[in-house]
Amino acid sequence: MGLLNPVIATLLADTKEYMAKMNEADAKMNKFGKTAEESGGKFHKFANTASNAVIGVGAAITGYAIDQALKFNEVLDNIQNQSGASAEEVDRLKTSIINVSNETAISSDKIGNAFLQVEKAGMRGASAYKLVDVAAKTAVITGGDVVSTTQTLIGIQRLQIARGMSVAQVGDLMVNANKMHVGSLESLTGVLTGKVGGALAATGMNLAEIASISGVASAAGYGTAKSYVALATGLQKIESPTASSAKQLKALGLNADVLAQTARKPGTGLVDVLKMLEVQSRRTGTPMNTLIKDTFGSASVGMVQTLANNINKVSDANKKLQQSSGKDLAIQFGLTSQQLNFKLKQLETQSHNALTGFGLLLLPDVTAVANFAEGAVKYFQKHPLVQKIASDATLTLFGASLAFKVAQAIGKIPILGNLLAKIPKLGSLFKSTDTALLTEIAANTAATATEGAIADAELAKTGVAGGLAGFAKTFGEGALGAISDFAAPVALAIGAFAIPYLLTKGSQTEVTPALINEFYKGKVAADIAAQIKTKQAEGIQFTINKATGTISEVTGGRSPVSFSYDPNHGSALQEYAYGKNITQGKTKVTLKALVK
Amino acid sequence: MGEIIISGMVQFDQAIRKDMAKMSLAAKEFVTKGADIIGDSAKEQWRARPGGSRTVSKSGKVYYKGTGPYAARRPMPTIRTGNTRSSIRRRYVKEVGSGRWESGTGPSTDYAPFLEFGSRFISTPAFPFMSMGVENAHERIDALAHRLFNQAQE
Fold first, then answer.
1. Inter-residue contact A423 to A66 (CB < 8 Å)
2. pLDDT by residue (tens digit) across B86-112?
3. Quick one: which of A209, A192, A199, A323 has its CA closest to A270?
4. In chain A, what residues touch B130 (CB-CB under 8 Å)?
5. What pTM, to 2 d.p., does this model score?
């Protein structure tokens, strides 16, 4: 007998791969810390963000992602609500916003707000994208705000002071003008658009001319709208001479018509007029001040005199600005984007955007649940996104690590409850939500999640690449790239969580009223529900087989006595001892009538 | 040039170590409770002793009839004395490597292997009560693993 093989069923739990990946993540983080320490740069926020992101990669990533996605979605909603953009356009904008944000390191909500301005102005598609892209790059180079820069670009277009110039050229011009402008970017944009810009544009000045004037005037301390408007009024006076003004100019030796014609010349009108006055002053000995006063009017004497004194600077600046090109903007942005601070900021923004994308992936479903409707259960069952989430390699990222982390605020909802509980704004909605319906959904999604976890475990056996590919497939390459250094090892560790899990495949799931009603009818179902409730109060747990409807006690190693219900025996509690139904005789069997 | 301040490295390291320890404990609990589930399941595979098959002689000796209406019905083994069935229990739980845990469940009677695997008198497949027990325990082990490993990740 001793030679016989013993009859032993062996159960093995192997967390080796999980442990290895966790070690890898740990090592990477330590390596990062060491490298960073040696490099001696400074970026507190990034450091905190990075370490926090890794520490809480499991717990926080989805909550944060959904929070970001909610904010992002709010912007998208604003675009749709306020600009009248179609749903398709808004959908397309999601990618555009993230792309621009990733490239320029400006937060996606700011870029979204910039798009809001553009869409409100009626621009759509490629032209809208181009404008925001240029505005963002301009804002990065000039250190300005992307929204106001966008508004300025829109304003410039509307004032038609940049005819024949591409948006990129205008952006480059703004960058160059900002270099000459003494004062904030806002004061420059205030000159280029709005009341001042409009007044100057009305005189036929183009953008470069206005910007060059602004450069010299701002250096002399002219920053108020009043002085610029006075200049515009003076120019208008020259361009539209009256009989009396013509007579006055004639007395000074100036031909009003020639002066008006010169002033109306786009791009160089003002400069040419000032040169004419200067020549006339030298020729006749009339003071410039007098000539300016009689041509432009007394209100603009100061500023025009300043411009006249710096006529060469105005002229040079004008020439330079007229030569602005989109290529130069790209070069300038390229230089800026190579700077360390920008790169760190970009990394941070890209990580945020990756998480926003992650959150967006979940958000439609979350929103659907939050805004509960009668068809929500079916929606979840049929929605391809849920299937995708459940079957993809990323499932365990939130399935194993995230979904079960939150306190049981919303009852026994393995996946949804935890995801939703992460979202502060949705918390209040759930207070008024039908928890029974939530439970139904949870039952469905939990079952799907179980299958997904198995699929993931199996996928994980194919190696890390499979997990990475799955992650990238779901969240996009950008997302993978953004978090690969830190989060990915942990995510993949969870993804590659290859405990010999094959035994676990099955269709048992939590007992819910919906599932009871699926297999049992009317009073029978009510009886079962009541009995289970009583037993659960005693601490006994039950599972239901989705395929057969059999409800079994979760024995978990207790004595082999169990409680059970099945569709063949109705609502009477079946007590099994050693596999035998010891109460069967007491059961009133009304089998087929009870089964749907 | 300033300095980079990386915070949370120690906490991160501790969190990782703690997580790994929790996973190892979960693995141990999984194989332990899983072994009990398999044991329970294996016991459920047995057919109750047919009524009338047990007789006691005047001298007190107990006999179990195994022929005619009392014959075995494959693949379920039929309880005669109940010794093999009663002896099914968790035999060991051991750590076989870092984060690797193993448990074994089975009967202790000498003739149990004959029942499970067959013999020259019992053709194969014989009465694979352990195999069937494992097979039927899948769903319960599934639920157990799901619960334990998710708890460990909380």
1. yes
2. 999 999 999 888 878 889 899 999 888
3. A209
4. 7-9
5. 0.42
* Dist. CA A11–CA B93, nearest whole Å: 9
Return the amino acid letter for A54. Answer: V
In angstroms, the CA B80 to CA A355 distance is 63
Radius of gyration of chain A measured on its C-alpha atoms: 36
Provide the β-strand partners of residue A5. Answer: none
Give the A window 343-402 contacts with B, CB below 8 Å.
Answer: 400-401
| Long-range CB contacts for residues A235-244, cutoff 8 Å, separation at least 24 | A235/A200, A235/A203, A235/A205, A235/A263, A235/A269, A235/A270, A235/A273, A235/A296, A236/A202, A236/A203, A237/A295, A237/A296, A237/A297, A238/A263, A238/A273, A238/A295, A238/A296, A239/A203, A239/A204, A239/A263, A239/A264
**CA distances from residue A146 to A134, A137, A150, A339 in whole angstroms, order as listed:** 9, 8, 6, 19
Cα separation, A176 vs A155, in Å, equals 18
Q: Does A405 touch chain B (CB under 8 A)?
A: yes
Nearest CB to B143 within list A8, A543, A580: A543
Using one digit for the tens of pLDDT, what is the confidence trace for A494-524? 332 222 222 233 456 778 888 888 878 888 7
Taking the domains of chain B in order of start, what are their residue ranges? 24-153
Spell out the residues 6+ positions from residue B86 whose beta carbon is closer than 8 angstroms to its own. none
- Give the mutation candidate from A8, A445, A551 for the B interface (greatest B CB count, under 10 A): A8
Q: Do A507 and B139 touch (CB under 8 A)?
A: yes
Which tokens in the block code for residue A217?
Answer: 């005037």
DSSP category for residue A168: H
How far apart, in whole angstroms, are the C-alpha atoms of residue A574 and residue A532?
12
**pLDDT for A153-202, tens place per residue?**
888 878 777 777 888 888 888 888 888 777 766 777 777 777 777 877 77
The domain ranges of chain A are 121-332, 508-594
